[in-house]
Amino acid sequence: MRTVFYRACIELTNHRFSSRLLKAFSRSKLSKRFVRSFSNTFGLNEKEMGRSIKEYEHLHDLFVRHLKPGSRPIDQSPNSIISPVDGVIAQAGKLESDTLFKVKGQTYSISEMLGSTEAAERYRNGVYIILYLSPSHYHRIHSPIDGEIERQWTLGSQSYPVNDWGLRFGKRPLSRNYRVVTELNVKGEHMVIVKVGAMNINTIELTHPFNTLKKGEEIGYFSFGSTVVLVAEDGLISIDTLVKSGEIKMGQKIGVCNE
């Protein structure tokens, strides 16, 4: 009963009109008065921000903030894979039954997440990592590894919560939400970076204009808290090296490529 009620509440509030209204407000001068209270409420680290808190013109400006140089050192260990975002590692491991994984009691298929069985085929028995960003986190997304972008595509339209309640009671939000998928060729093997939109402010912007990515380079940003799912081809990442839970900063090592 609780699941039905929660889903109904989400459906009633997550419409284009309310989403557009919230998005417009967050980018308006009217929202500037909430910048300080937002920072205090979510405990943002103002010392690492690229600008003084007084210089942010509206909430969106604060959401997509840059940080001071050196705030997120990139792990330079040979073959390391870094976290592409600040966030919490919600789960990591090997795909079950070739292409499935479970989060908060719900089963997801890579085919559904990537939009087709064809796209999912090369990731059978691969490794996945789920990173959740709350509103307090730095919202810019960086490349977890050196690679070449083979293709990018967009799926979904609306977005539902991806916090603990959303993952537990929503209708598979990681594979239904609006999402932007980037597929990388890493020395002949592959990894997808699935950027999953959050409820209401449903914006994912790509900022990298080239096909070649270096570890740690910025590739885009979220306009609000959300989720990144990394899925690597079987054999690319050593399963024993994965960081499987806990708070993580962009640039910190979360795994190691097999040699």
UniProtKB/TrEMBL annotation:
Belongs to the phosphatidylserine decarboxylase family. PSD-B subfamily. Prokaryotic type I sub-subfamily. Heterodimer of a large membrane-associated beta subunit and a small pyruvoyl-containing alpha subunit. The keyword Lyase applies. This is Phosphatidylserine decarboxylase proenzyme. Pathway: Phospholipid metabolism; phosphatidylethanolamine biosynthesis; phosphatidylethanolamine from CDP-diacylglycerol: step 2/2; Lipid metabolism. PANTHER family: PHOSPHATIDYLSERINE DECARBOXYLASE, PHOSPHATIDYLSERINE DECARBOXYLASE PROENZYME, MITOCHONDRIAL. One of its GO terms (cellular component) is plasma membrane. It comes from Halalkalibacter nanhaiisediminis. Its EC number is 4.1.1.65. Binds 1 pyruvoyl group covalently per subunit. GO terms for molecular function: phosphatidylserine decarboxylase activity. It is found in: Cell membrane. Is synthesized initially as an inactive proenzyme. Formation of the active enzyme involves a self-maturation process in which the active site pyruvoyl group is generated from an internal serine residue via an autocatalytic post-translational modification. Two non-identical subunits are generated from the proenzyme in this reaction, and the pyruvate is formed at the N-terminus of the alpha chain, which is derived from the carboxyl end of the proenzyme. It is a peripheral membrane protein. HAMAP family: PS_decarb_PSD_B_type1. It comes from the Bacteria. The active site is at 86 (charge relay system), 142 (charge relay system), 226 (schiff-base intermediate with substrate), 226 (charge relay system). Pfam families: PS_Dcarbxylase. The gene is psd. Its main location: membrane. Its cofactor is pyruvate. It is an enzyme of class 4 (lyase). GO terms for biological process: phosphatidylethanolamine biosynthetic process.
